[in-house]
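Subject: Sanity check before I submit

Could someone independently write out the structure tokens for this chain? I want to compare against mine line by line before I put it in a report. The sequence has 295 residues.
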Amino acid sequence: MKCHLCSHEGPPLESSRIRSNIGRHRNDHFAVWRCAACRSLSCERLADYAPYYQGYALRNMERGRLVDEWYGNILKRLQQAGLGEQDTILDFGCGHGLLISYLRDRGYAQVRGYDPYTPEFASREALAAVYDFVLCIDVIEHDPEPRALLRTLIDRVRPGGCLCLGTPNAEFINLAQPEKFIHYLHLPCHVHLLTPSLLDRIVCEEFGLRRVASYDHWFMDSWIPGASPEFFERFMRVHGNDMESAFEKPRLTTFIKHPSLIYFLFFGWFHSRRRRDYIMSLYQRPADGNDLQAP
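---
Independent answer below. Compare away.
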């Protein structure tokens, strides 16, 4: 077997067949394996992904206190990398524009979005410009050709600007405990899950950018009750552990039947803070624009 990401040839370090976390497809199982060299995870490819994205539950998210708190974590990381209110921003793979809306409300007026699956943001006109910051959060794992995606993203970063990438960390996932990690795997929609070292190798060594900041903790975490991964993953498991269960309304009976949820409702943040479940890295393009042209 040849790894599509690092080109290593040989048997995988581990492999399994794991169900989809999409409710109506929960009986569909997919092969997933870990490369023995780069330790990335890959899922078998499909000829047609459309049935798995039809009625995609994550597009039901709306802005509110919790979502804005999570987006605030992203903004803090961008600000620490030098983001200013006058900077131009592209949110690539923006869904229906929640992060764009949040940033505009915080004074970042020059933010645009691109998402070919959302009519409002499907125009490729946004890809004709270059930007001070290009954001690509929770997108690269969906793309069967991550290097081609990275080339597109880097071409949209002005010389001296920053590329922000966010994706689950393959090293955090244990294939022997599929139900615990099923939403990170998110089969078959997540085609490739990278490790931090592999992402750095591709972006820095192959494309010539410089990493200026890196975070190993998911931005969707907060001290606000109910806003930690430790809580809502446990909440989802008691509701069937499909991705749609994230949108179940909390009921008193749920906490009576599962009293440990009360503890994690208030204190889950202290547990999830210890995780290294995510990669969020910011890379600067050389000011002279002389980055490398990876094949």
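---
OP: Matches mine. For the report I'm noting this point. The radius of gyration is 19 Å.
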